[in-house]
Amino acid sequence: MTHHFPVRRPAALxxxxxxxxxxxACSLDIGGSGSGGxxxxxxxxxxxxSAAQEPRGLAGSSASSQASAEGSASPVPGGENxxxxxxxxxxxxxxxxxxxxxxxxxxxxDVFTPDLTQEVDSVPGVSVGxxxxxxxxxxxxxxxxxxxxxxxxxxxxxxxxxxTNNGDGSGAYSDPxxxxTNNGDGSGTYSDPxxxxTSNGDGSGTYSDPxxxxTVNGDGSGTYADAxxxxTNNGDGSGTYSDPxxxxTNNGDGSGTYSDxxxxxxxxxxxxxxxxSPTATLTVDADPLPQVGKVGSFPSIDAIQPVTSxxxxxxxxxxxxxxxxxxxxxxxxxxxxxxxxxxxxSSGAPAIQVHGHTDSVSDEAFNQTLSEERAQAVVEELASQxxxxxxxxxxxxxxxxxxxxxxxxxxxxxxxxxxxRRVEVFxxxx
Length: 430
What we know:
CATH 3.30.1330.60, 15-stranded antiparallel β-sheet, 5-stranded mixed β-sheet
């Protein structure tokens, strides 16, 4: 879940440190690959052999058996024997870590930016945050997430604030609400009444706000906690995910478990999985779980250079809206889009942009067409739910990833691809 920071810093913070915390706005993918199957827009699975056990194909994951070509007949739902949007016997990946867009720590410009963060129900696969633009009205690729970095630029002070330059690359800034320290060796801190950031300069660091806490240990391990969601990456290929209703465990040796109120899946790591639901207990074919990728390094702190939010970005993972390889909005997604339509209508936004994105699996032409059709499908659904604002649908195919589709060793990164398969609803500031 991405958080929208309250806009409260003075404009002086834009030029607020000689060499303090620079927060450039990109996608911070400091988690590794997921624990689930190799799901993508370009693969699906043959599933178990009996008709009662046929897999549910979906955008967002694959069945855990043999792949078939994209664009085949519509998949058969797995019903109570499958995780919603996944194949029978498939365990979703342990998600990657993400942080909010930390470049947006400054006073807004003289336009109204609707804060929709608290108005959209928090559901798995949906995030809301401030948007960043490369130029007026043009959404920056990867906006809504961040990589911490800096440009080493000098700053000035203003009334009510103080800046210290020690001449050795270190310095400090403070005003009535913000304190920033740069130790000159890549380490430093940022704090205000709600946000605290610490970078130790060795690849480890922490981020915390009233609901989100992220710890990166610098050795590939880390923890993430956000409003009931907890992710633990042990740095050795194993990890866990839990929220109030779901628990996922990847043991790092190909085995793992999934459980919710009605369904449990145990992958033995030997090519089989035991599925237990209220209606059946099944043993099905299932690939061993890929290891959870290591958590990346927490970037060092250099200099703060905040930017101004240009609107609000709502990101919906494709699995929330669509079945595998389909651009038809699922029936169970109508409520999510209905809630969103109410928020968009009440905000009074005059214009809305809807962007479709895919991962890099399958060919470029297919991905481009699918992204366009999905964006248009969301526009049509929002219009049917009463949104009267001007809406524009655009598909970008696989050209604007927010995460790596592959790990450094060339292996598949299902958690990264899951982030890339998304629909973004951009509400420009007005």
